[in-house]
């Protein structure tokens, strides 16, 4: 029988510390700048809000075209360089900090920000191979933006074909 990652994680939680990978029995203190419980709480709080801010492709394109809108691609620099929606700007999720977000977004924390990720593309091919659904970059990006104080985030809520001319895909 194949174990799912969640079942495996639950099994590891139930094991005594000495039986877990690493085997150390000494308690390890968590640095104060790493807050899993805070992340879990933020994720729970953001979930219903995010559910209301997912747009069909036609409306997403209309909103992105409005003055002041920011189309943010949080994929890696390499993935962005391999192709992206026209007009998108790139700031990889791994580079999100308060200072970098403020420099990109500007002083208006209510600026509308529109996001998409690999899992919005039905192609499941380079340069946008799909990720596991529960690890989709949209989820992490949305949570991070709201967590950094940007409440006006909107997400592409449909699956589209990046070769569709309406997508305006930019490739090298």
Detailed description of the structure:
With 172 residues, the protein is an alpha/beta fold. It has a domain at 51-170: Rhodanese-like domain (Oxidized Rhodanese, domain 1), CATH 3.40.250.10. The chain has 6 helices and 7 strands. Helix 6 (137-147) links the parallel strand 5 and strand 6 (153-156). Helix 2 crosses helix 6 (137-147). The termini are far apart. Residues 1-20 have low confidence and may be disordered.
Report a brief summary of the structure.
The protein is an alpha/beta fold. It contains six helices and seven strands; from the N terminus they run ααβαβαββαβαββ.
Question: Architecture of one domain in CATH?
Answer: 3-Layer(aba) Sandwich
The CATH topology label of one domain is Oxidized Rhodanese, domain 1
* H and E order: HHEHEHEEHEHEE
Write out the strand line-up for the largest beta sheet, numbering strands in chain order.
Answer: 1-6-5-2-4
Number of strands: 7
Strand coverage percent: 5-15%
Computed structural class: alpha/beta
Which stretches of 5+ consecutive residues score pLDDT under 50?
1-20
Radius of gyration computed on alpha carbons: 19 Å
Protein topology:
Elements: H1 5-14, H2 36-51, E1 54-55, H3 57-64, E2 70-73, H4 77-82, E3 84-85, E4 89-90, H5 98-105, E5 113-116, H6 137-147, E6 153-156, E7 169-170
Helix pairs in contact: 2-6
Summary keywords:
172 residues, alpha/beta, five-stranded parallel sheet
